[in-house]
Design goal:
alpha+beta, five-stranded mixed sheet, Glutaredoxin, de novo design (two linked rop proteins), two-stranded antiparallel sheet, 13 helices
Length: about 425
């Protein structure tokens, strides 16, 4: 019996740990509902570390990814998947305590139900872990904590089930040596089997644990529709020097201009979210290069993304293959900037090595003049010095809506433009 109690305690503590990690993740997500920038907690000791404001942690990558929430086009930012995770772990904690308090740790049917219930976070952890590593290329410590808690809890629940099933098998009661023939031998108490109806009620309770907070969150989420389309328009969208580079299909009905720096991590994140969005197929997208590098951009006094000027020249030189160069730059941002920091010209050297056909064009007066024309187009349209910036038609997507709120705001801007309400 002591082993069964130990297993019940392990399952309960695993649920507490999973709930704690999910709660911190939910808290970090909810902070962003004011449409401002906030630091994130990314630690195996949830809530005890300092919030990271660098935006470089694995937790930041996963939180800002399109996989961190659901219903993103309906609710600003969507409903964080960490919220139903909290509810699941809360239910698993209540279940573990209930089985222990009612003595059901000897009931194989009840313990089997608990093992099946723990299978949900294990399956979810496997799916999200695969996405994090294969698609996002990031490891989030809070997520790893949830995965570990799910695994330990599942193993404990499975062990409890097998122990209960073994105890439930009929077996002979040993008679102590030397006992009298008429001496009574005390038998273990009978196992009380939980009725299927009770397990059905427990399942319904678990569903309620998840649905109630999700519905309440969706109902209480702020309505940010008033901000959509309120952040200004382009002063003069004409493009006589053809500085706007077409990217992807240009036959879709809604024109979109993306102002980007090929070495900007936020631009890379936006690109991933945009590619995963449902409105992407409705847009014809063009790119304005805006390198935040003082070697060509006179609007800044230091290189925020060193090497961005050289990579922007490579994008311009690639012409119809510009998208391939941008994708390469996004994938190798850290290495390119490190090469430029270690030696001037390092970024250009990497671009020439990767795209040999562009070697003569990169650094040429023509390429440098084209980058300069891009920057002058930005000045002509009074663009702020930041990336990314997104315009649907001539209407600007608010900066606060380029990450978590992108699906919500971009869907509405595209719809407005399609209905003739956008410029």
């Amino acid at each position: 019996m002591r082993a069964k109690i130990t297993i019940a305690i392990v399952a309960a503590l695993s649920a507490v740990a999973g709930f704690s990690f999910a709660a911190v993740s939910t808290h970090d997500f909810v902070q962003h509902l004011d449409r401002q920038v906030h630091g994130l907690h990314c630690s195996f000791l949830p809530g005890l570390d300092q919030a990271d404001v660098s935006g470089a942690s694995g937790c930041h990558v996963t939180l800002m990814s399109p996989y961190s929430s659901i219903l993103r086009e309906t609710v600003w930012g969507g409903i964080p998947i960490a919220l139903p995770a909290m509810a699941v772990f809360a239910f698993l904690l209540a279940l573990a305590l209930g089985l222990w308090a009612t003595g059901r740790v000897r009931d194989p049917r009840a313990m089997g139900f608990q093992a099946l219930a723990w299978g949900l976070p294990v399956i979810a952890s496997a799916v999200m872990g695969y996405i994090s590593l294969s698609t996002l290329g990031a490891a989030c410590k809070l997520c790893i904590g949830i995965y570990a808690a799910s695994g330990v809890g599942f193993v404990a629940a499975l062990a409890g089930f097998f122990m209960a099933r073994a105890d439930a098998k009929p077996r002979a009661i040993p008679i102590p040596e030397g006992a009298a023939a008429d001496e009574t031998v005390e038998a273990p108490p009978p196992v009380i089997t939980t009725r299927w109806g009770a397990l059905g009620a427990a399942f319904a309770l678990g569903v309620g644990f998840v649905l109630v907070p999700v519905v309440v969150y969706a109902a209480a989420a702020p309505d940010f529709e008033r901000f959509v389309g309120s952040c200004g328009t382009l002063a003069d969208p004409s493009d006589p020097n053809t500085v706007l580079l077409p990217v992807g299909a240009q036959t879709n009905p809604v024109p979109v201009i993306e102002v980007l720096d090929p070495l900007c991590p936020a631009c890379r994140g936006f690109e991933a979210r945009f590619e995963a969005s449902s409105v992407q197929s409705q847009t014809s997208r063009k790119v304005l290069l805006f390198p935040l590098d003082d070697s060509c951009n006179w609007m800044i006094d230091r290189a925020i993304h060193p090497g961005a000027c050289a990579i922007s020249e490579a994008v311009i030189c690639a012409e119809d293959e510009a998208e391939e160069v941008i994708a390469w730059a996004f994938e190798n941002q850290e290495a390119i900037m490190a090469a430029e920091r270690s030696a001037a010209g390092g970024a250009a050297r990497m671009a020439r090595e990767r795209f040999g056909a562009l070697s003569e064009c990169i650094g040429s007066p023509r390429a440098q003049a084209r980058v300069n024309q891009s920057l002058r187009w930005a000045v002509q349209n009074q663009l702020p010095v930041l990336t990314p910036q997104v315009y649907v038609g001539q209407t600007r997507l608010c900066d606060a809506d380029t990450d978590l709120g992108m699906d919500y705001a971009l869907t509405r801007l595209v719809t407005q433009h399609g209905n003739g309400g956008g410029q």
